[in-house]
Amino acid sequence: MVFNSLQFAWFFILVYALYRVLPHRAQNWLLLVASYYFYAAWDYRFVTLLAASTLVDYTCGRVLGAMQDERRRRLVMWLSIGFNLALLGFFKYFNFFADSFQALFAAIGWQVDDVTVRILLPIGISFYTFVTMSYVIDVYRREIEPERHLVDFAVFVAYFPHLVAGPILRATALLPQIARPRRISAEQIREGLWLMAWGFFQKIFVADNLAPVASHVFAPDTHATGVNVLLGTYAFAFQIYGDFAGYSNIARGTSKLMGIELIENFRFPYLVTTPQAFWRHWHISLSTWLRDYLYKPLGGSRGTAWQTRRNLLVTMLLGGLWHGAAWTFVLWGLFQGLLLILYRPFEPAFAALAGRRGPAAAVQRLAAWFVMFHLTCYGWLIFRAPSFATLREMTGSLFVNFAPATMDVTGLLVPLLLYTTPLVVVHLVEARADDVLVVPRLRMAVRYSVYVATLYLILLFGNFGGSDFIYFQF
Amino acid sequence: MRVRRALLIFAIAAAQFALFEIALRLWGHSEAAPSFQALFMPDPVIGYRLRPGARTRFVTDEFEASIAINAQGVRDDVAIGPKPPNERRIVILGDSLVLSVQVDLQQTFGRLLEARLNSGGGAIRYRVINAGVQGYGPVEELLFYRQYARAFEPDLVIATLFVGNDAEEAVASAPKLLGAARPLADALSNSMMTRLRRLVRRSMVLQLVRLRIVAVTDRLSNWIAPPEPPLQSYAEQPAARIAEGLRIARECVAAIAADAAAGGARTMVMLMPARFQLDDTDYGHLKRAVEGAGGKLVRDAATERFDRALAELPLPRFDALPPLRAALPGPDVFFQKTVHLTPRGHDVVARALEEFIRRQGL
After folding, report:
1. Which end of chain A, N or C, is less packed with Cβ atoms under 10 Å?
2. Chain B: residue nearest A450 by CA?
3. Looking at the structure, do residues A10 and A97 belong to the same domain, yes or no?
4. Would the CB atoms of A448 and B8 count as touching at under 8 Å?
5. Is residue A1 part of a domain?
6. Which one of A410, A411, A445 has the shortest CB-CB distance to B8?
7. pLDDT tens string for chain A (474 positions)?
8. The domain containing residue B162 runs over which residues?
9. Taking CB atoms and an 8 Å cutoff, what residues of chain B touch A6?
10. Is residue B77 part of a domain?
């Protein structure tokens, strides 16, 4: 059941109507049943995995809370992490590693049996295993108390707005909201409805309309010239952003309507000037998770410069692999890690530039943004390329066969401008106010103009035959 | 305060409606555009037909074409007068694949066929009349022939059948053979629904909204009762209505042939394939979609079914699939965003059709 489906519309209307009339404990039961139904709508067989992950980590949390011996506590934490990584490894990466080893052996002339079994990827597994892992680690670190109510804990893991594509929530943020009675304010309803509308706009108007534009360029054997590769890559950059930020906004909006606040997952990531800032603005819940549970435990930036570089590289490589079981994702992670390392010595200069005034500083900021945006786009080219051969060919086209005269104006440029301009305009307004929820706070006439235009654009130009959200596959 | 707010929202919605309407009229060329919709008019017998004297320019990001409808309501720059003694007339009945709004009239296979037949000189001049209308099936072709095309005094009638959906369309349109179009049109002529339809047809914004509503209601009905796999004409196990549609199509073609023969004309049948029968990528997508809905797609099943159904009629049959397939690989014979022939596709069909007509002595 995807957010942009009639099935979800009916589901949410029914759940919300009940939610508004039930008392607090019954609301939590309702959320639990609704969330499991939401998950089962994809494939009921995987509900057992979700339930197993919930039970194991609930139990580990309770045991950790009751235990004093540090050696034993550490063992319990590692048992929980091992269980979650085993789930993730088996269901998400088994085929990938089996295929890779088979290819490696074949390359050295050693034929091995086809050990790959067809393993279906349970939707959202990368998200909920990270949620439960962070909970157990936080309990181990004594940063939170273990949750006593199994129902509340199960809602925390399975809460349907964030279940299949995030944001990756922390127990510290969500569990207290589940545990206490919720009051839904008029402001929450206004903001929630706007976030949902804007999320649908990002998904249906931006992402789903740009998907065929990008696919046209990224299809194998397209042999696009450099200028068309560039336009296709821009299209994918906005497609993936519209898709993922759209999902996050619908999730946040849905949750706000129920009086539960989810964290902001995107904050104008394409307006930044450094890779470090990019990761503070793009998929914020994943980057902070990687920072707190991988980068910092590895040593973070506390060691030597080389150790810091190593930690960055390892974190981003694993971050890349988290996105999917393919070597292009690993390469994308490596690319992001290298960008962070290369920019690191210049971060103070960029920070100083951000504070400077005057036309010279503005030009420098613009240049820095231009470079960063194109580096980000090249990252998306790596991410989207169907194979290394295509990546090599497309990169070659960018540098040796740019051929500006071959620009596909009607097939690439016009749709790109048409479907990104409204998004960019709203982002510039939000960025100027440094507030992603500035629209519901604008003057009444302006606010309603934006609301009505958003609805018109969705209704008249939205792609209603669109696909699932890209991040479901991760 | 609430009234003021409601008025403000209404004013904003109306102003933006006007802005979107203007923008769509200026740049949003599509079949939903009022200028394109103005090509059609209601017809009490057939349901609708091309509006005599209508003209438009149809522009999309894939093609650009001028469309003129003559005084008799067929695609032509000039009216069709009485037949001169040295003229042989060929009337091509069919749907959008014959009308071909994607290309200029001179690029349609009808006009190319006319040029080829006249290229040898000689005392006899050929005139090929494009009597295709968007959305027509075998039933409408028969009714159009009886109502209008018979008057063109044809020597040869080509009944074109699109194998992709004409069996289904024959079933849906069969009530028109009993005269059902007339009372319905009469009943609706002055009703609110008709006025609403006219309003919607005149507004590009409302046309798009209508399409959205149709899509939502379709999805809703699909959700309530899961739909059968699409492309039933190509299904390994087609629904019973496909056999019924083939029977109706055969009877309509037989009726056209009988009427044509009464006027001294011969009749032949032309089978047009669907794009996916030639395009492997398209075929892959549709095959997966059909399999996803629990069916099995057989690529040329519809062509074979029409061929078998029409074999009982003593009429020459021309199948456009083999020559189009023989033209591949090469430049596209179908457009990418529509299921219609490109200028090259028209050229391929015209060449093969000319050869067929000469070989058959038609």
Report:
1. N
2. B12
3. yes
4. yes
5. no
6. A445
7. 677 777 888 899 999 999 999 999 999 999 999 999 988 887 787 888 889 999 999 999 999 988 888 899 999 999 999 998 888 877 766 666 556 656 665 665 555 554 444 445 567 788 888 899 999 999 999 999 999 999 999 999 999 888 777 688 888 889 999 999 999 999 999 999 999 999 999 998 999 888 888 888 887 777 788 888 999 999 999 999 998 899 899 999 999 999 999 989 999 999 999 999 999 999 899 899 899 998 999 988 888 889 999 999 999 998 888 777 678 888 989 999 999 999 999 988 988 888 888 899 999 999 999 999 999 999 999 988 888 888 888 899 889 888 778 777 777 888 899 999 999 999 999 988 988 889 999 999 999 999 999 999 998 888 876 554 444 444
8. 85-360
9. 216, 219-220, 223
10. no
Examine residue B45 and state whether it is found in any structural domain, yes or no. no
Question: How many structural domains does chain A have?
Answer: 2
Q: Are A354 and A346 in contact (CB under 8 A)?
A: no
Residue A95 is assigned to a structural domain of this protein: yes
Assess whether A124 and A191 both reside in one domain: no
Task: Give chain A positions within 8 Å (CB) of B16.
Answer: 449, 452-453, 456
Residue A452 to residue B12, Cβ atoms within 8 A:
yes
Amino acid in position A147: E
Three-state DSSP state, A319: helix
Q: Which of A154, A182, A210 is the last residue of a domain?
A: A182
- The structure tokens listed for A361 are 């500083």
Catalytic residue check, A323: yes
Domain co-membership, A273 together with A227: yes
| C-alpha distance from residue A69 to each of A58, A79, A80, B61 (Å) | 19, 15, 17, 71
Interchain proximity B212–A414, CB inside 8 Å = no
Residue whose token pair is 């899509």:
B215
User: Final residue of a domain: which of A182, A217, A240?
Assistant: A182
For the entire predicted model, the pTM comes to 0.73
A410:B61 CB<8 A = yes
Alpha-carbon span B188 to B195, nearest angstrom: 9
- Residues A441 and A190: their CA atoms lie apart, in Å, by 10
* Structural domains of chain B, count: 1
Q: How many residues in total does chain A contain?
A: 474
Q: Would residue B72 count as lying in a domain?
A: no
> Which residues of chain A lie closer than 8 angstroms to B212, CB-CB?
459, 464
CA dist., res. B271 & res. B277, Å (int): 13
Domain that residue A60 falls in: 6-182
Other C-beta atoms closer than 10 Å to the C-beta of B247 total 15
The answer to whether residues A247 and A195 touch, using CB atoms and an 8 Å cutoff, is no
Q: How far apart are the first and last CA of chain B?
A: 77
Residue B60 domain flag: no
* A307 and A441 share one domain: yes
